[in-house]
Amino acid sequence: MVKLCLVAEAKAAPPTEPFRDPDKAFVRLKRAFRAETGLQKAFEQANRLVSRLNNGERVFLHDADGNQVGLLEPNSARVAIATCVTRDNFGLLATNLSLLLEKDAGDAYPWAVNVLDLWSLAEGWEYLKWGSKQLRDYLEQRIRLHGRVISDDELDYAGSFIKHGSFGDFTKGKRTVIQLNPDYSSVFDEIYRHKYLEGPPVVLERTAPPVFTDFRESLRQGRPVIVKSQGERASRRKVGRNELCPCDSGKKFKKCCGRGF
After folding, report:
1. Per-residue pLDDT tens digits for 81-106
2. Over residues 197-226, mean pLDDT
3. Same structural domain for residues 183 and 217?
4. Domains in the chain: how many in total?
5. Model pLDDT for residues 63-78, shown as the tens digit of each residue
6. Which of 78, 197, 201, 252 is 20 to 30 Å from 37 by CA-CA measure?
7. In terms of domains, do 137 and 246 share one?
8. What is the pTM assigned to this prediction?
9. The domain containing residue 219 runs over which residues?
10. Residues 189, 6, 81: CA angle, nearest 5 degrees
């Protein structure tokens, strides 16, 4: 049986409006991040319980009036993950916690998600008939992507996991930072359209591995430069706009990786 324990801490405070001056904006955002209603505090509160469980302690759960309502026993087969649920969208500050989160080297990153994305993810999981095993796989891999894979939308991460089945290909090779394609989150739009707007059923079609482009080299050459899994550039043959895209998406190049070029 898959055992997963999500230790969730909820926060409800809108992100602080930054100054126009970059230095002042950073100071304000960092201060809000560490505030009582910020992500730093949510992590610290949830992580205390996770640490106790991982150290073999019993954790008693109480309601707002101090009454005991539950008990978590230590279990070596259970994965405990600190989860920060927010009312508001903190964007890149939440999806890439390496930017501002302070933690000990031995502590894992938490999973930070706003309540709307959490709802969409739950609907997607239900639609695909996925359960705790897939959620555990997603979260265990997801919390290792901070500082390596970026997007301002948690659903881009979830969508890429659904499409490829894992994040393994995103952590291979010598790449520095990977920017996710925003189209990954479209699977949740498709699920919504099918459930509520009489759209077509969503068929899960796994595609592996993902296709990577070298952003700097693409800018230099004025066209997308596809790279292989270990960072080696693919063939430099120029792709016609009406040819099939070399990423194997089945779309024409101009409607896929060649958009905007």
Report:
1. 999 999 888 889 999 999 999 999 88
2. 84
3. no
4. 2
5. 889 999 989 888 877 8
6. 78
7. no
8. 0.82
9. 213-261
10. 100
